[in-house]
Amino acid sequence: MQTIRIQTAQNVFIEYLPASVGDRILATLIDGVVIWSYLIIVVGILATMQIDGAWLYIILLGIPYLFYDLVSEIVMDGQTIGKKAMNIKVVKLDGTQPSIASYLLRWLIRWVDMLFSGAVAILAISVNGKGQRLGDMAAGTSVISLKRRVGLNETILPNIQENYQPVYPQVTSLSDRDVAIIKEALYVHNQSEQPDPRLIETLATKVKNVLQVESSMPPMAFLHTILRDHAYLTSQ
User: Fold this and answer.
1) Where are the chain's structural domains?
2) How far, in Å, CA of 176 to CA of 14, rounded?
3) pLDDT tens digit sequence for 54-79
4) DSSP 63
5) Residues 57, 112: contact at Cβ < 8 Å?
6) How far apart are CA 108 and CA 117, in angstroms?
7) What is the pLDDT of residues 187-222, one digit of tens each?
8) Which residues cross the membrane (predicted)?
């Protein structure tokens, strides 16, 4: 399957697998179960309480039904309950955080994508190669898989000895996202048939600037040391 290359804020290209059509269909089905369960429960409560009023039904039923996907993706950082269950999410292809306008645009065109029981969306995703339906193409977004591509026996970091001595205690200031980017960059570099050493050099320079440290280590060794230090210090 073709991968999607996204440039992060650290100027590092990370490759992701686009979410499969099957995962997206299952996510949609899960979201359908969630929203219809909500509607049935609310209708039951209103009927039991013998509450009348079309406006109340529109507010409690119509609005959640129409705006569930849009609000969920905005609030849950590109995910709905179904997408979270399937471990997929919406991202911008330019590496920036999707804006409300991006979510709104892909939501508006969603009604076109869903024509013919979703056949339009399925065809677009299958032909596009970047996991994009029509709404994604218009918004510059895609839906990627967050599932790990490596097992525990293939992890980048070796076992850390109990008497390990950290080299850079400043690593505790790195966020989980920063560390994840370093790990992913190293993984992509190791798996690439033609790795570009400039990417690793650029990332190493960026990390040094953020931590305000100097090092004569080769970029690859420096980044591995950063990961070992972070793993050790955050586990204490």
Assistant:
1) 4-145, 152-234
2) 16
3) 888 889 999 999 999 999 999 999 99
4) H
5) no
6) 16
7) 777 777 777 788 889 889 999 999 999 999 999 999
8) 25-47, 54-71, 108-127
